[in-house]
Prior knowledge:
In chain A, the strands form 5 sheets. Chain A has a 5-stranded mixed β-sheet with strand order 7-13-12-9-10, with no helix packed on it. In chain A, strands 14-4-16-17 form a 4-stranded antiparallel β-sheet, with no helix packed on it. In chain A, strands 6-5-8-11 form a 4-stranded mixed β-sheet, with no helix packed on it. Chain A is mostly beta strands. Chain A has 2 domains: about 45-75 and about 95-120 and about 215-270, Sandwich (Immunoglobulin-like), CATH 2.60.40.10; about 125-215, Cupredoxins -  blue copper proteins (Immunoglobulin-like, Sandwich), CATH 2.60.40. In chain A, a hairpin with a 6-residue loop joins strand 12 (about 190-200) and strand 13. Chain A contains 3 helices and 18 strands. The chains are: A mainly beta, B mainly alpha. At the A-B interface, helix 1, helix 2, strand 9 and strand 11 of A face helix 1 and helix 11 of B.
Amino acid sequence: MANLSGWNGMRWLCGLALTACVFVAGCGQASAPTAATSSVAKPEEKPVYFKVDAATAGTVTGRIVYTGAAPVRKTVDMDEDPQCAKLHKNGKVYDDTIAVGKKGAVANAFVYIKKGLEGKKFEPPKEPVVMDQHGCWFEPRVLGMQAGQELKAVNSDPVTHNIHPKAKVNREWNQNQPEGAEAAVRKFSLPEVMIRVKCNIHAWMKAWVGVVDNPYFAVTGADGSFEMKNVPPGVYTIEAWQEELGTQEQEVTLAASGKAAAVFTFKGK
Amino acid sequence: MINGVLSMGPKRFLVLVPLSLLVVSCGEKAKVGELPATAPAKPVGATVEITVPLGLPPVPIPADNPPTADTIALGRRLYYDTQLSADNTVACANCHSPAMAFTDGRPVSVGVGGKTGTRNAPTVLNAAYNSLQFWDGRAKSLEDQAGGPIQNPVEMNQSHDVMVAKIGKLADYQAAFDKAFGQGPITVDKVEKAIASFERTVLSGNSPFDKYQYGGDKKAMSAAAIRGLAVFKDKAKGNCATCHTIEEKYALFSDGKFHNIGEGLDAKGELKDQGRYGETKAEEDRGAFRTPTLRNIAKTAPYMHDGSVKTLKDVVDFYVGGGTSNPHLDKEIKELKLSKTERQDLVAFLEALTGDMPANSGPLGQ
Lengths: 269, 366
């Protein structure tokens, strides 16, 4: 309702409350409606964030290795949505639930510091992480982010997607995004490893988001390796997660300005 | 008809007494010219019966505005007259054009000076059956609705007084009003009643679905559309007919109610438009919009209250996905498990809802 001026506005107001109308308009005591009592804003306590001392920080590296014959890659059937199938030239898309490369390298494993940073609070990055829906596929399949950081979900496809992180610790949500829709920008405020992400419209679309309360996490690349930089010296439990292979933990000790390595080996059948 | 000013129609005369009290008691300058000059207008001619195409129920007619040949003809002329707008560029038909099944094909409409609203122009076809008008139901009748866009700053942006004065200067309009309502000044009331009577004739039925469902022609719909109708009605499948209703003898494809279907939320998942809540201030109405008819849906893209959904496939996918989560989401909205064929069949069914366009509904003389 855009305009309640003049006679029409009067007419409307009067239809609602005749007496009030006479009083307000008639005796010139019209006043703006009392502003809703606004709660006094509490001065927000600024959290004290831990500052990493670059002079003593070190690096944790490692690899995720699969032993045994590499699983045969399956193709994905996108026939359910012909518009999706058309986005792929040869019509073939490989399922990357588990991708094993040369020398047993496992890609898309999520690695993070699980224990050893208690009491330290890290500021979430200002830049969002991006999850793209492209070719009726989530890119990347595995994404790491810090609690409180923004997740930007983009739809680059000419079809409608409905991204749905099935969060259990954080609030679950889903967002419909037709072609050209603005990106969804959401936060997960609590650590949660892992959140399964699906598209409500395309059953084959799957992704995973690892939310941790520190900046030390990584997703392995095609060579199965990972690297975490700027880690304060200490003793840490590192967890590696892969959607098919499950999880493994290792303890590493990082000396001041030192390097530590962890190789996680998953036995194949 | 996006954000039109609410017009109280029949209630307006209630205010005559308090307003005059006001004038006397406090000595403010009375704007006498703005007072309604006459009693409610009533058509003077013989009432005509509006024939209804296959698949539609009888048209509801308000007691104070029975349609006559003269009011319908006058309403038709006004509907296409751009002089109702401030700069003489925008008629009702700009946003509700017969060339586009009485919509404008845009996500949101363009008013005078290129201004845009925030909601998609609903079709006028079969609007006569809506118990409440506008996406948020803020008008109780076609008469109430008709005056809204004329004054809306982003639509026709013309005060009713100026509009009445403008068309009153045209001699042939005065004659047409006199013929329709008896001698007397042109009033907004008469303009609204004439437009509403014309709109009551803007009906569309006799679609392939109507022939199949109500006309006994089992070949009128394709096999895909027939399967789609079953998915549409099945509560465990499409669950569409729960709100887009189909009755035994007719189908309006609307329950006339307001629902939050999880559409039109921003990046953070907040409602961009509060919808029905703006009228009722009831929490359950947050983000709820009137269930639109689905008749002629294949011709009225883009879809939803904000026009953000481009194709019927996208509409079906929207419902398959269960919309966007929000605290006020209607309980009937949830993820649907539909196969490729079922999704395609639903689109085929929606395409079978295209009916005949009404005769005598274009600009006069055409």
